[in-house]
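Hi, here's the filled form for the chain we discussed.

Project: internal
Contact: R.S.
Residues: 155
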Amino acid sequence: MKIEEGFTIDAPAADVWALLSDPQRVAALLPGAEIREKIDDTTYAGGIVIKVGPLVAAYSGTVSFLLNEDDRSAVVRAKGQGKAGMGTADMTMNSRVAALADGRTEVTLDSDVTVSGILAQLGRGMTQVVSKKMLQEFVARLTTALASEAKEAEA
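And the returned structure, exactly as it came back:
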């Protein structure tokens, strides 16, 4: 399933890229995500817990970050195995950070997500709703983190 999203944030592109190119910081802002260990320079082991109404799906697996510093873009690949027969999840996301003329930053995300098991049974519509909600929470946390960093830099 293809999911295309984007958002604009009131922060300089360099600051947004610095945060979004740091896997540990991204995981800390993504609802239910955690990085447990670094496997190599681009790959990490971790997990994510996704809540859909009363259903809780927990996945363990790997995520890799292939960063292109020159154009502030990234390819993120995540692959996970659900616990207790929850199925599998596989995602490839291309993202890009672009400076806007007014000092704000636009972030575009283009994802290809494949799920099997219980989440797949909920259907495409529910998966998109959950994806949008997770992105909204991530953007809110990202905004707070960047505002906090800007205040610290001013002090």
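Let me know if anything looks off before we file it.
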